[in-house]
Request: fold
Amino acid sequence: MPKDLPAAWRVSAVSAGEQVALGSNAARIENAPGKKELEVATQSLLSRLAELQEAFHADGRHSLLLVLQGRDASGKDGVIKSVYGAFNPTGVRVAAFGPPSSLELKHDFLWRVHQVVPPRGMIGVFNRSHYEDVLAVRVRKLAPETVWQPRFEQINHFEQMLHENGVIIRKCFLHISREEQRERLLARLDDPHKNWKFRLEDLDDRALWDEYTDAYRDVLAKCSTPDSPWFVIPSDEKAVRNYLVARMLVDTLEAVNPTYPAMQQAVRDAARDFK
Ligand code: AMP
Ligand code: MG
Reply:
């Protein structure tokens, strides 16, 4: 059994109204265990996650929605690769949200999101989400404040409704520092296998760093609720990031305590004859 890290090695949920510090310091953890140690511990969490997911799928009472938000190059894809590997693909779906299509823009902003909320038994991962409608839309001034400001409350109502209908929601903000983003964007320019991820808009968004910080701070303060909490994941170190997300997911599924449904009496009777 690979060793686990001390229990303190988990992030706590953002409290309602909390003004979270989002400077460079918050993107790292001081005295973090070494990369190797974290990777071993993450592997052990991912094995546990695989077991929990099998039971969660069979149990079928709830679904789990993991929302991943973060700036460009913050590691949303990296987390998906790390965590998805643990899952049986039958029970998990990933949805990515880019700029809305013209049809999507004709609908309310939650329309495209609601359609891909995972059904019971399934785990859904959102690579970006409805939160772009209070982040990119606000910062890039794609809609006036009279449109985006009421959305915080609309999102809370939407998520509360989902929660009451069996959807367990956990939201992670992958927080990287400005310096780390610069390194990663430069790597995207230099590496032919990563060029395709670099978009001109990434530079526009980087230039709006402080505006995004304010927008994220509002999201965390206004939309972290006990039932649908936000977690800020220090993400400058990939091994730290992967560990903390896996840890939070294991904690979440263990709290659900999924159980395999008991065999129905009719099946039990038939099985006796069959044997
Ligand atoms: P990526 O995740 O790198 O593929 O980029 C997707 C882009 O779509 C990002 O620049 C997002 O800000 C943008 N985006 C996602 N959702 C929305 C939205 N609702 N309104 C405007 N832009 C969005
Ligand atoms: Mg991108």
Q: What stands out?
A: The radius of gyration is 20 Å. The chain has a mean pLDDT of 95.
